[in-house]
Amino acid sequence: MDETTRPDPEHAPEPAESGGAPPVVAPPATAQAPTPPPGGPRRDLTAVAVVVAAIALIALAIAGWMYYETTTAQRAAVDKLEDATALVESADAVVLDLDEIVRSKISSELVTRTVEVADAVPGAVDELEEALALIDESLEDLPDDEIAYARALQSSARARLEMLEYAESILDANRKAASALGPATRGWELILEANDLSRSAVEEYNKLTQESVTRSAELTRESNDKVKAASELFSEAATGFPEADLSMYVEYAEEKAATLAISMKADEAFLADRPTEANTLGDRFNEAEKELAEKARELPDSPAEPIAAAYEKLAGAATESYFQARARATEADARLREADGRSE
Q: Does residue 13 contact residue 23 with C-beta atoms inside 8 Å?
């Protein structure tokens, strides 16, 4: 038997069955695995889609919650800002009353108003402090377009609060000055009227008749009544405003009363036909009048001058600081109107 190449057993064809179909060749061992049925991978993709959808829903829920929380916080912040605005506006009524008094000329008519404003200041301070607290709480959550307004309102409230810090000392000095000014001014008017009557009495006395001296005595008594009333008014003013040096007016009234007492004794002596005594008293009266005239020239033109000087000493520094705070409030108000869309 001849030697031939032996076929590879792995690739050798299966023997054919008698009368059958050709042999089936087995696929190579390295061939790819058949495609798996469609059911398995579709179930995997569906699971992934469900997971993705769930994550998306969670993200949407979180975004919605965050939007809700942000919107709610902003709304609450805006509400606080509105409340703060209302508080500043309420306190501003007291601030305006204070400002009117500070810028007004001191007068006795302002005494009652000054006391009323002084009583209202603590409440206004509380309102402004509460407003500042609300603004501080709102700033973090406010919408961007509200920030400028909130900052301006904050500056405005702080400036007003600073104005009110000086209210007590200013109003106290104002009340004292106003309460003293009326009596002191009226007292000085009475002194001037008394001097006119006294001069008329001297003119009548110098006529040296019973009738004229009788008239002189009447005028002197009228003058003396006015001097006594003036002295009481000067004392009242000095008590109401002890920081004001009104002692010179009190002393002048006392000396004027003493001079008039000499004049009245001279009138009595003349009418009682005691000419020597009358002449002696007349000389004493003339000498006292000269001294009194010298003292009058040393007096200020009006008691308002020492009262104003005392007021400046008491409230000058506070008033200057007040007007500085007022200027800052004015600037803040301008920014506030601009941020609020108002130009007036």
A: yes
Helices (H) and strands (E) in the chain, counts: 8, 0
Of 131, 150, 139, 119, which Cα lies nearest the Cα of 91? 131
Residue type, 210: Q
Rounded distance between C-alpha atoms, residue 129 and residue 157, angstroms: 8
Domain CATH number, residue 57: 1.20.58
Q: Tell me if 241 is assigned to some domain.
A: yes
Are 238 and 307 found together in one domain? yes
In a domain, 11, yes or no: no
Whether residue 236 is found in the same domain as residue 122: no
Residues 333 and 287 in one domain: no
Domain-embedded: residue 30 = no
Q: Among residues 187, 291, 305, 193, which one has the least CA distance to residue 249?
A: 187
Q: How far apart are CA 186 and CA 71, in angstroms?
A: 67
Q: How many residues does the chain have?
A: 344
Pair 242, 306 in one domain: yes
Distance between CA atoms of residues 227 and 264, nearest Å: 14
DSSP 280-319: HHHHHHHHHHHHHHHHHHHS-SSTHHHHHHHHHHHHHHHH
- The one-digit pLDDT tens for each residue of the chain (344 residues) are 444 333 444 444 444 444 443 443 444 444 444 444 454 454 455 555 555 555 555 554 454 444 444 578 889 999 999 999 999 999 999 999 999 999 998 888 888 999 999 999 999 999 999 999 999 999 999 998 899 999 999 999 999 999 999 999 999 999 999 999 999 999 999 999 999 999 999 999 999 999 999 999 999 999 999 999 999 999 999 999 999 999 999 999 999 999 999 999 999 999 999 999 999 999 999 999 999 999 999 999 899 999 999 999 999 999 999 999 999 999 999 998 888 764 44
Look at residue 325 and tell me if it is in a domain: yes
Report the distance separating Cα 137 and Cα 6, nearest Å: 99
The range of the structural domain enclosing residue 213 comes to: 170-319
| 280 and 328 assigned to the same domain | no
Total domain count for the chain?
A: 2
